Amino acid sequence: MREGAGLDVLVNNRSTANPFNKQLPALIDTGAEWNLIEDTLATAVLHLKHIDDQWVQTAAGPTLAPVYLAQMTIPNLTYSKLQRFVGASLGADRILLGREGLQDFVLNYSGRTGRVTLQY
User: Fold this and answer.
1) Which end of the chain has fewer CB atoms < 10 Å from its terminal CB, N or C?
2) Overall pTM surpassing 0.85 (yes/no)
């Protein structure tokens, strides 16, 4: 079973005191407004800066979720930009790229193969 369209990205906490990079799988979800990150990954591993809280709609209803700031890099596209990530329970060390994170790209999706190409 295929999980969905995705790519590998680097996430950096931009900390001068405790810098940390981690390569993570990123699922592409054009139906999601926000970028999401596993909350425990954001806090306990990456030590991302909590910058805000955002009301988000979940299957269980609306909830107030933390918003973190991180540098997201896609090496094969030479793309690097500060991005906001909403903390969520994703069940694994991964991120989800929603429309906010995809706004700089042109995305092509092949339904037959499940292959996605991004252009920057």
Assistant:
1) N
2) yes
